Amino acid sequence: MSGCSGGGKSTLLAELVARGYRTVAEPGRRIVTEELKGSGASLPWADPEAFARRAVEMALADRAALEPDGDIFFDRGLIDAAAALEHSAGVPVERTLAGQARFHQQVFLVPPWPEIYETDPDRRHGYDAAVDEHDRLLAVYERLGYTAVLLPKTGVAARADFVLSRLA
């Protein structure tokens, strides 16, 4: 899962967990939680490049720790982290991903949805920045040859049904 911040990825993944699927939590949220308890040096609003590098490391560790059997849904993940590193430091996504196995051909992106977008202590950027991020991610996934599937702006159960029907 990828796409616009505040677009409902985490809520959708919680629904997929309730239906028995495995998920991996977003690296960015985990990093912010850790950094707020520590020095705060790698917070996205303090040092975007350090944050992106940590997100890449965490996403690589997440992927290495998983058994590959069955479906696993990532809340963001390695490609999103690589896109953040490209945006913050100019490191090409292709270089960060070199040697990594590809993910499923279809990637589901939540579209910008102003009616549900909210900031919070971990998500301090505004809606316009979230839309810009979504546009960058869509371009990266398409550049890498993935099929980007935009999720409908519907309730969480209908979104989960949509994802699972596309994968059937």
TrEMBL record:
Q: What sequence ranges are listed for the domain NadR/Ttd14 AAA? A: 1-159
Q: Secretion signal: which residues?
A: none
What name appears for this protein in its UniProt entry? ATPase
* Natural source organism: Primorskyibacter flagellatus
